[in-house]
């Protein structure tokens, strides 16, 4: 098994075990960005849309009323089954496909829009993912990305990526805006609109969603509790009686168009 295969197997195991949590997670199901998706994409009634790494299916749920067909793709079979249980029978125009984000099983120029939300930090080769998204888009089609991002400051970048890895072994890296912008350009995608935001997590829910033991949670706790004041301030880490209550990370929403 190659290193890449091992990484993707770990992702499948992680999301397979916690599939239902991603359907009910407040982070994934209630984000304010979900309401912005139809507004930013401006889909037509005949539009065909692909959502990559669909997870609990929250993006396809938001877009299905605005499109002719929406394809929910995910690397993890169990995740798709859980998403379908969550969405059926209300949405008859959603189709479910097991697919690797870095090697999509679709022909060139197939989709009017492609989306991916809160998932690429699990991808080992995000540049390949962006090229694949561009490949399956029609000319003039739109690619909308939403994900956690790393701050430009190296110390903050290393801290947050270490935090995510301690909490979730399938985490690869939260990438920077600069990195994403480079990959868009290389894939022939033009950035037309972007918005940065701060996203606050209820810490107990957030840490329990992906950890598998009390020992693992204690390692995450220790990483946060030992942070410098500048890091505590940047991530708005709220601590009460040595218990972590919440933290805030950076998220980026970016809309691009295929040249």
From TrEMBL:
Record-annotated Methyltransferase type domain positions: 50-144
TM regions (residue ranges): none
Pfam families: Methyltransf_11 (PF08241)
UniProt GO BP: methylation
Keywords: Methyltransferase, Transferase
InterPro entries to which the protein is assigned, alphabetical: Methyltransf_11, SAM-dependent_MTases_sf
Gene3D superfamilies to which the protein is assigned, alphabetical: Vaccinia Virus protein VP39 (3.40.50.150)
UniProt protein name: Class I SAM-dependent methyltransferase
Organism: Peribacillus cavernae
Phylogenetic lineage: Bacteria, Bacillati, Bacillota, Bacilli, Bacillales
